[in-house]
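Posting this for the archive.
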Amino acid sequence: MTEERQPIGTEAEPVPGLKPPQEVRAVADAGELELVWHNELGGLTYRAGDLYVKWNPLRTGVDLGEERLRLDWLAGRHPVPPVVDFGENDSSQWLITTAIEGDMAVGDRWRARSDEAIRAIAEGLRAFHALPVDGVPTTWTPSWVTRHTTWSGPRPAVDDPVLVHGDACAPNTLISDAGRWVGHVDLGDVAVGDRWADLAIASLSLDWNFGPGHQQAFFDAYGVDVDGPRLAYYRHLWHQES
């Protein structure tokens, strides 16, 4: 992890010498594979027709099996990619899902329509946080609960628990051509927790993806007054993640 955790790119640039892993090639002919995302941990996401294939080496510590469980639970409750298959071996895991309509809420297109994109991100998270938490597996522990931190003050109490996305950066909201949110992706950290765990990072990611000056518009669209202590706490945890 970099010290200042930021998304790599909204669209994957060519990586010299990078070949799709064997597990990915098994899904479709290599000529049909399009690399759409890669991150600093070595995780890769490819599109193969109407399918997406997410692949991670086990050394990253990211468990795609946990994401599969959450996608299965969210199916029918919230628009998320349907799971087609999951596999793992001694060195990697891969998760295959069906594509759902919509684009990541980033890139040149949405920078030119930033007001619509930011409103869609806020409204999408508000809908996610409105999902009933009854029946959420208690074993789904938010990663920030166990994360090491040098925070000197008390951890804010969770007095209004909601279903938290866990990685609410702008790219993980999908938006329709009309500028409305249509779903969410990258759901491996879903758990019951503090909505500010999402709001703190979603608002911060606007600076990375749209430039400074948009955070207040995000909070206004979500319909919340800024909670300074929670904002600071969850952003601190984000930067402490290892």
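Residues 1-12 have pLDDT under 50 and may be disordered. Helices lie at 22-25, 64-74, 108-111, 114-129, 143-146, 195-210, 215-222, 228-240.
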